[in-house]
Amino acid sequence: MNIHEYQAKRLLAKYGVPVPRGNVAYTPHEAVDAAKDLGGPVYVVKSQIHAGGRGAGRFQNNPDGKGGVRICKSIDEVRDNAEEMLGQVLVTKQTGEQGKEVNRLYVEEGADIKRELYLALLIDRATSRVTIMASTEGGMEIEEVAARTPEKILREIIDPATGVMPYHARKIAFGLGFEGKQIGTFVKFLSSLYKAFLELDASLVEINPLIVTGDGSILPLDAKMNFDDNALFRQKEVVEMRDLDEEDPAEIEASQHELNYIKLDGNIGCMVNGAGLAMATMDIIKLYGGEPANFLDVGGGANKERVVAAFKIILSDKNVEGILVNIFGGIVRCDVIAEAIVAAAQEVELHVPLVVRLEGTNVEMGKKILEESGLTIIAADNLADGAEKVVKATREAA
Ligand code: GDP
Ligand code: MN
Question: Could you list the residue ranges that cross the membrane (predicted)?
Answer without folding.
Answer: none
